Amino acid sequence: MEVEYSKDAEMEKLLEDLKNSNVKKEDWEFHDNYKPVYSTGNGLNRKVVEEISEIKKEPDWMRRFRLKALEIFESKPVPTWGPDLSGIDWENTNYYNRPDEVNANNWDDVPDEIKETFNKLGVPEMEQKYLAGSVAQYDSEGVYHSLKKVWEDKGVVFMDLDSALREHPDLVKDYFCKAVPATDNKFAALNAAVWSGGSFLYVPKGVKIDMPLQTYFRMNGEATGQFEHTIVVADEGSKVHYIEGCTAPRYDKNSLHSAIVEIYVKKNAQARYTSVQNWSKSVYNMPTKRAWVDENANMEWVGGSLGSKVTMLYPSSYLRGPYATTHNLNVSLAGPGTVKDTGAKALHLAPHTSSRIIAKSISIEDGKAIYRGLLRMNKGAEHSRSHVQCDALLINDNSTSYTYPHDEIYEPTATFGHEATVGRIGTEELTYLRSRGLSEDEASSMIVLGFLDDVMKEIPMEFAVEMNRLIKLEMNKLGAVG
Questions:
Q1: What is the structure's pLDDT at 30?
Q2: 18 backbone φψ class: left, alpha, beta (φ>0; ψ -120 to 50)
Q3: How many Å apart are CA 162 and CA 147, to the nearest integer?
Q4: What is the span of the domain harbouring residue 94?
């Protein structure tokens, strides 16, 4: 595979940015000394689940739901068909830390140490410049949520899920664990049992939000878990773009992130979900993300998975109505000593549905990148179509990439295509860029960003800049490209 790179004005500017940026891992991997006001301690059992529900003052149906989910979690084995998960220490993980009693809608009311953490990450600045609303979560709880009044007046609901359960209990109950039931997999059952925080976003019929809304998740503790649950509902004819960012400090002991994201895209609605995850390399990242897409609706997934020790992530779209569509663009970067087992799922359940999946992976040193996907065309999904494209870039001789597509076509009128390519950074590209004054590391970073161009241009500019910096950080760790 020839690795393409751009030489236009936009890439020239990026070249200058690469030269001038000064990125350090301390920008994301710092941790503070803020202590939780309440913790359930290590381990998980019925008492812990009841404690979580009690401290949140939840309705009885949620407490019963949690306890049933715990039984499902305990009955399911740890998956063995993918990466090695033996490093998850179930008994010595803390499943709930309450950072503070405050959940503010005014940034000044957030505790100073927590506020300083989010200030370092640039969250308030992004909210002021780019966002229609924002939710900030620290460890197990949302500590801040805000929505611009213009959207509040139109009936938009955007807050952490705990607040939504208190203020809009019937609306939450209509959607909670419907697209992702607790029986789906072991990690979904775990989330259903111990979930805390996350977001609830409801966009009423016909409302088109012209600015993104964002949630930022920060995991600060060691040997801890974060189990947010996010629900996005785009009602008929609406339009919304939801963004999430995630970071965590680096520790010697492993932590666990097991989220659920449920997205409901109603008739004629449009939803986009963008996620830039930069967990530290002591985190097992095991989320379940799924969208129900109704008639003539469109669901877009845009994802960047740049951190974690192990990631298993396969956003899925269930195309349930005629002419429903989904696009999935994702990039994963498997740095030294890490595994990215990522991909996408598209299930065509109705006629004239379409899906497009583009997956880009980069493997550095002994990093392992895996594409694992599912494409299903059910009988009756007449004249539906799908295209899957997997491209892998290997940076070193010991870098590895694997592709495991699983395609099930039961409808004879459906059309489907799958292509996969694997390539390396070539000498000619490096020579050209070094002749322009770049070091070998800078030249390699430039080529990688060109390889990712069709994904990066779909990410809002402020987040694309952040991804550029993160990629450069990983490339700089190499010292030399071999």
A1: 46
A2: alpha
A3: 16
A4: 9-476
